[in-house]
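Supplementary Methods S3. Complex input for the MTE-bound model.
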Amino acid sequence: MLNPFRKHPELIVHGAHPLNAEPPLPKLRASYLTPQDLLYVRSHGDVPKLDGAAHRVGVDGRVARELSLSVADVQAMQSRTVRAVMQCAGIRRADLRAVRPVKGDPWAAGAIGCADWTGAPLGAVLEAAGAEAGEGLHVAFMCADTCQPSDGGAPYGVSLPMSKALHPDTLVAYAMNGEPLASEHGFPLRIVAPGWAGVRSPKWLSAITVQDRPSGAHQQAADYKLFPPDMRPDTEDLSRGITIEAMPLNCAVTAPAPGAGLKAGGVDVEGYAVASDRAVVRVDVSADGGRTWTQATLEDHGASRWGWTFWHGTLDLPPGEHEICARAWDAAGQTQPALPDDTWNFKGYLSAAWHRLRVTAA
Ligand SMILES: Nc1nc2c(c(=O)[nH]1)N[C@H]1C(S)=C(S)[C@@H](COP(=O)(O)O)O[C@H]1N2
Ligand SMILES: [Mo]
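Predicted complex, serialized as structure tokens:
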């Protein structure tokens, strides 16, 4: 099985080996479902070259029957398509870095995309193996890539608590928007754990193990923790880190661009908003750094629990410099913090303050 996909030439590349890249925001906002060549790529090691016809995924641990599944075996199981956002825990890290130095690539607001993912529910795979399903169990995943030495130097590994593993929308996926997964996105099989940080959606899946503790692999045990604001690299204490799972409410302006020179008068502003599994119920935009706000219009792309929300609005900009802001509200009436300073952490995760950009009107 040859994999035909290549990434879009306009991606903003943070690192080529391994590939870490995100699309320009106006391109990302051009379609509700993100084309596969435009989806950001976050990799801890080089893309493994896997043969889809020969690839196997083992299922073991607390199971009645160990399995070794081919891609065809997974495709022969019940199939389910789930519309869901994939986003990195490091999205918008650049805003935190502007406050104080942080570790990791300076992702902008493009480390996100929304797609129709097709696969077998992970729960169906576990059931086929006769897996135990008790509360307190974890489903650990091993992958076929080898992470950089600075990321543990071992195969990528993470886990999901059993309740998330058994959610009917958690998939062993083989297709994105009806196409086979591209090599960069996990060909031939990956997990999709909707609403959770991308780190919990392992690509190039090679083994599934049911066990009584979270994965001991570097990505689960030692990375992707939300640390308190007073911690620094030299005082890192894993026991004070929160394991990043569900993603926070977030919102980004995809046009105009930061620094844009605009014609004074009514200016169109547009973007996306996303909540983990609550609905986005409102987006507000401001032309004066958040002192006054105008309600934006939410676009209707049909109900989808794990999708994102596109919005647009108009701001009246007199000649001069302006700070445009956008913030979203969720179904519990919660909104985002005003400043990146409010949630700064030295690893630069979960950056979700009001999105701000300066523009000039003339
Ligand atoms: N095997 C493997 N799975 C992985 C990763 C990786 O480096 N190796 N990166 C994770 C992270 S941090 C994210 S944000 C998502 C990114 O998925 P994408 O590259 O398909 O957009 O994949 C996750 N799954
Ligand atoms: Mo990520």
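The radius of gyration is 21 Å. The pocket of molybdenum atom (ligand 2) is lined by residues 42, 88-90, 198-199 (CB under 6 Å).
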